[in-house]
Design brief:
By secondary structure, the chain is α+β, with helices and mostly antiparallel strands. 36% of the residues lie in helices and 20% in strands. Strand 3 and strand 4 form a beta hairpin.
């Protein structure tokens, strides 16, 4: 039997797990557990699990305070349809989505581990952004933790922001950082403290005050301290 067609049997196991959102855009908190279920990712709205009974699927379980995000993301996956850029959407329950499990390493973890990120990844994300726009959606919130390196290509996760207006410029800044600075760190593991400090500085800077050149000068100073 193709277990991806019978995911409803997983609902009982998920009922023992509760997700809670946290303030200040911090990752969710997980309460409870269920035999045979493993958490494989934590975000600010949801946590993602795999079950040993359904290894080809990923179950994105939302915080009770973020159920509205589940409805939005479900509709976006339907609007995107099946394509090469995003995981396949299989269905949804009251507080979860069922997606293809995708092998790969996030670009965030690639930097932590010193795994080289090829230029093809940048090209794939650019193509994905064009595809998103062709579906009358807005490619927002594309960042290091939402992009998987998969066989030399990019696979994009988390589509919930695509219904929101405006450009958050997250991808534009990442692309520019890759093109202008990545050559200096390629293949070198970046310490977690440096990654975390960069994230916090970025999140604490308002969109109106953010200047890419000034931000990179601050990060460069930290990098020099790390490499000294």
């Amino acid at each position: 039997m193709d277990k991806s067609r019978n995911w409803e049997a997983a609902i009982e196991g998920m009922s023992q797990i509760v997700i809670h959102a946290n303030p200040h855009n911090e990752p969710v908190t997980i309460e409870g557990s269920s035999d045979g279920w493993i958490c494989i990712g934590v975000g600010t709205d949801a946590a993602v699990f795999r079950s040993i009974d359904f290894p080809d699927l990923a179950f994105k379980l939302y915080a009770e305070e973020k159920i509205a995000k589940k409805e939005i993301e479900q509709n976006v996956y339907k609007q995107l349809g099946e394509n090469r850029f995003f995981p396949k959407f299989h269905g949804a329950g009251d507080r979860f989505l069922v997606l293809n499990y995708e092998e790969g390493t996030t670009l965030y973890d690639c930097l932590l581990q010193g795994i080289p990120i090829p230029p093809q990844v940048i090209e794939d994300v650019e193509a994905a952004r064009d595809f998103i726009k062709s579906r009358d959606l807005n490619p927002r919130d594309i960042h290091l933790k939402n992009i998987l390196l998969q066989g030399g290509h990019a696979k994009i996760l988390d589509v919930s922001e695509y219904v929101n207006p405006g450009n958050d410029f997250r991808w534009e800044y990442l692309k520019r950082g890759y093109e202008e600075y990545y050559q200096y760190i390629e293949g070198r593991p970046i310490p977690f403290w440096l990654m975390n400090m960069t994230r916090k500085w970025y999140n604490q800077t308002s969109e109106q005050q953010f200047v890419f050149e000034d931000f990179m000068r601050k990060i460069t100073k930290l990098t020099i301290f790390w490499r000294s």
